[in-house]
Design goal:
- The protein is globular, with a radius of gyration of 18 Å.
- Helix 2 (19-36) runs antiparallel to helix 3 (42-57), helix 3 packs parallel to helix 10 (178-201) and helix 8 packs across helix 9.
- It has helices at residues 3-12, 19-36, 42-57, 67-79, 84-92, 94-101, 108-119, 127-143, 147-166, 178-201.
- It has ten helices and no strands.
- By secondary structure, it is mainly α.
- The longest helix has 24 residues, at 178-201.
- 68% of the residues lie in helices and 0% in strands.
Length: 217
């Protein structure tokens, strides 16, 4: 499946979609195409792939880590009749997901603690305990095949990475964060066609309200 193929399907089925959902998919496919054009450049591919996922999933209410986002993830997994998301998490990328979930550098409270120490060297933080609990929770999701919860935790980690990369908190093509950027890029590039296909096949589902709808002049 390619962006061009999905775009043709969108065009052929345009009468089935309301304007908001059509806009959502058109934007997401355009950024997925851009991500595919960044083969060989993990940083730019990760950034453009994340934008594509944001176009699909992030609405005026949904952000990684909140209840609306988990609800959207549960919706996608329930509609994934081919179990492609399950296959990706448990077979294709099982080792990569485990490594990502046990990586403190993509865990938000770790960076919050670093900023606190920079201001107050004696500041205390329980980020290590929280990180351990989060890692155990994630691995339990993996062992018990809790697909929505595991996907949500994985994307929550990747959202920290994208904030770091897009926010200028990492050097371009740096060796320091290479593993997590390459892992994130590969995961997103495998997940995107699955998500886009599900949304194309279920135009009448409630996918949320666009945070930035098209506004007529």
């Amino acid at each position: 499946m390619t962006p061009d193929e999905l775009h043709e399907r969108l065009r052929a089925q345009r009468d089935l979609f309301n304007e908001e959902h059509s806009t959502r998919l058109h934007r997401a496919i355009s950024w997925w195409r851009a991500a595919q054009e960044q083969q060989g450049n993990a940083d730019l591919q990760f950034i453009t792939a994340w934008i594509s996922l944001s176009a699909c999933c992030l609405t005026d209410e949904s952000q990684p880590g909140n209840s609306s986002f988990l609800k959207l993830i549960e919706q996608l997994v329930s509609l994934d009749k081919e179990q492609a998301i399950y296959e990706m998490l448990w077979h294709q990328y099982s080792g990569s997901v485990k490594a990502l979930l046990k990586n403190q550098f993509v865990y938000g409270p770790f960076w919050e603690a670093q900023r606190q120490v920079a201001v107050n060297p004696t500041a205390e933080s329980d980020w290590k305990e929280r990180f351990e609990r989060s890692s155990v929770e994630a691995l339990n999701c993996l062992s018990r095949k809790k697909v929505p919860e595991l996907l949500a935790l994985t994307l929550e980690r990747l959202s920290v990475l994208q904030e770091q990369v897009i926010g200028g908190g990492a050097t371009f093509n740096s060796r320091v964060n290479r593993e997590q950027v390459e892992t994130g890029s590969s995961l997103l590039m495998t997940l995107l066609p699955v998500v886009l296909n599900i949304m194309l096949e279920h135009p009448h589902e409630d996918w949320g309200t666009l945070a930035f709808p098209v506004v007529s002049n």
